[in-house]
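Chain and conformation:
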Amino acid sequence: MIGQIQWVIVVTLAIRLAASTDKRPHFTTEPPPRVLWPATRGAHAVCRATGHPPPDIHWVTAEGQVITTIPGLRHVLSDGRLVVGARRSMVDAGGGGNSAILRCRASNKAGVALSRPVLLQPVDDNILANSVKQLTPAKLGGSVVLRCDISPQIGFTEIKWMQDGLPLTTGYMGTDTRWISGAGGLLLGSDLTQADIEADYSCIAIDTPSAVLKLTTDESSWLESLEVNSIEARMGDTVILPCVLRHINRHTITWQRQDTSGVWVTASGEGVVRSGALVIPNIRSQHAVRYACSPGSEATPRLIVRLVVYEPLTVTVTPNPLMLGTGGSGTFNCSVSGGRGGGVTISWQHEGRPLHSPQAKLTLGPVRSHHAGLYQCTAYDHSDSAVSGAELIIADRPPRLVTTFSEAITRVGQSIAFRCAATGIPPPRIVWTLDDRPLPSAPEKYTVNTRAESIPGSEEGSIISTLNINIRTADEGGRYGCNATNSGGSQGHHARLNVFGPPNIRYLPPIHVKVEADVTINCPYSGYPVKEVLWRREDGSIVESPLDSGEERGILRLTSVRSAAAGGYTCEVKAESGELARRTVRIEVHKPPKIAPFQFPEELEVGGSTQATCSLISGDKPIQFTWHKDNLPIPSVLKVEQKNMDFFTILVIQDLSSIHSGEYSCRASNDFGTVSHSASLIVKEAPLWVWRAQNTSVSAGAAVLLPCSAKGQPLPRISWEFSTEGENWRHILWGQSESADVNEGSILSDGTVWLRAATPEHEGWYRCTARVQHSFLHHMFYLDVREPPKLSRGGGVGETQWVVRGTPARLTCTVRGEPEIHVHWTHDSRPLALHGSGGVEMRDMGNGAMLSEITITHAGPEHAGDYRCLARNLYGTDELVFRLFVKERPSVPEEVRISEVWSRKARVTWRVIRGAIVSHYSLQYRSLARDLTNAPLNAPLPALDTWDSLEVLNVTLSNSDLLHVASEGPSRAGALVSGLYPDTRYVLRIAAHNDVGASPFTTPLHFTTREEAPGGLPRDISLRALRARELLVTWQPPPRETWHGTLLGYTIRWWEAAEEGKGSTDNGSESGASSDATSSTLRGLKPATRYGVTVRAYNAAGNGPTSQPHYRHTLESRKYILA
């Protein structure tokens, strides 16, 4: 029994150890959730996976159908890459061109895994177009903000910045980092040098470079209204929140954030303010609030930017792993988080096969062995996808006997019961045996009762089986056993039932074993008491079988038997009474087959013949011979002849071809074993073309796949050469890296040339060579790259041009490309109509270039706007945008108003006209005559004879001095007028200037500053004692210029003062006087008492300063004098 338990444990451990060497596929590089597929541009995706053994990688549809290569249109490579040619070519070839959901599948013998779904999305070519916009003017030593504008259909993508054609190194707040790139395609440059300002800038998105941009430094001509109102970012991104306000000083920018209650608080700890922009690294969901920048700490928020943070779509499957026993039930739960808020679709897969369960909960059960494996939950929304998996492990636990029975002694006529109890997952089945053979079917002797019981707190249950035996004869004695078995293994227990009676031995059938096998036989005897049990050979000699501790008598043990050990073995049982019982068993020793190795000749060629002989060395007959090729039966199409004899078999192959190459195995079998031997058959074959490209014509910029594949033995090696004229060939040394430059080509692992964007430099002759040792094939074809129109600006000008009203304007575009180019112009998206004010001229410049030029003789406001030069031919289109601004004297500032007035300053605001070119503003103001100060509000305003007097103050306001007043509506600018006097009436006017001239001044605005508490002290204060209880206080008003408004009166305060300079004013008394009063009598005082007195003036804005105390004694009372 112990030996059998150990054997089960060893086998279980061996199986688990062997299984541990196999590792499920794991994706090291997973394809993106979406791949754009333009009409003339190709698409590609990369998938990598590891595992043991190394997994096979295939691309499959959403339904699980494997995608195969279509030469020149779609190539599925063994390295996991999927390369799709131009969508237009696929449509023209009838191979489709619609959107599709694809997945990468990695499989080995350990399991199958699917990548997240990939949406192959058809888009127009213009979706890939991008451009660089300048959001703020560039300043030497200052900063600039650029934005790479891409199509919203692209979504989140990596953007690379270029400066003068070289990659621009960007980072976050490094010691030497002057450039920071952030989400939304923003780029912040600080501490700009002259070289930075003079450089060209471009961005690259989806392998597509933008046109270059020259920085603009002239703030007076800054007309862009590219306010950044919202920025979308992914978790972990760096975010740049630019303060795109006109006419502000970047060094005074403050930032606030809106908390959950809607209150604006200082954005401290959110990041770093750099050059006016708020830079937040490693963005998190708590940063997704509204931010506001303002040009000073006193101003309210001016520009509000909403930050939207998206968490990537993630999927989690729990529990992992899920461990169930056979027949058990369980549930997988799929949790989905993140995404962009759209509807999420959930699906389940088991080992790569779809399951029809769109719910987040997947219930399994009752499970069987084939249910084990990887379960994946896939989540997909309109822009993202994610997948996660968990493994179901069939955790069967082998049986464990928890209750057994012991050896017993009984007599005929009695009854006895044996009980066994076992646990395990799944619940085991208990079978009873007698002398290692199934219990005889005899209801009058044997009855078995089995029941199940649960064990509290455990997944296992207990199976209890009871064997009731009615002893009718001594032959009911013997070696009884209970064997518990389930899918995880088995465990047995044996013990003897001794019944008083004479010895007897049950029948033993012949035993057939293989050479070198071990043999163990228990003698099936009954009777009691027994003196000895022996085994004898045919010659009568005793077989010595040493017994281990606890083993029963009567065991015959033979190890590594050979043919000489075959024969009869007799068991002898001798009772104490001298009675003797014998029984003989026959042991037959057999030999499994053994065959001689064979091999095929090495030099085999197409059309030849060969044979192989598989000969038997030893083995019991009859022998069955079979042949296999690559572990499968040899197909009849190969016309291979097999001749089988008693001791050998011959394989004959005539008219050899490449399809005969492979691994051939001879298998010899008899009833006692199978043996095989394999040999490789290689038929050398000259290379033959499988597919090859033909003469091809493509448009410049289109993706091209030039296939070249050959078969042969050994596998042909593919090489490529190129020549512009069909002579002087040079080898193509492109690599296979998917990160190669978009303008270069690469050679795929299947030998295909992949041009991601064909250029005129790729035009020419291509020669593909397939080589096998000394044999080779050549194939030549011509690639004709037809150029669509390519436009450029003439005269070295940029996108934006400025002209003064009444002067000529010229817009020039140069076009190159294949002949029959049609060029036309539009103005503000409408056909160009100059109405006699100019014309369009087309000239041939030679070298395949043509020039189209608009000339406007006298530019006026009606000529300003966007002009587009559009060119097309049979191979594509191109367009170029010009922005023409016509400078003229600025118009009078509109909607001018005094928006807020304080005592010493006022804020004047006006509407900024879009398109107005203003370099600075002139603001003039002066106070009106003093004698008007107290005039009624409806008094007529005097007219100013001149604004050239010394009393007029002139202020020049540059654009950086202006305020952006968002609280008054869009496009409002303003300025603070300070240094004013309180409660004073002023008149103000404003004019705009640029390099052409100045606008007229606005109609004068009148306003009066607010009052302020008086700033002067009452003058000439004196005290005079009138009576014993009265003091007369007299004074003169403060200086008129310190009133700061209209005086409303005076406050007189007095208190007792014991000594000069001492005394408390806390308990003093106060009285008032009108504004026109200059004296006041204090009554109710104490006689002969010293008093301190102060006087102060007040107006509607508050109290003025208090005068210095003045002291005086009251007169003595008359009664004191008489005394």
About this structure: The chain has a mean pLDDT of 86. Residues 196 and 996 are 30 Å apart (CA to CA). The first helix runs from residue 2 to 20.
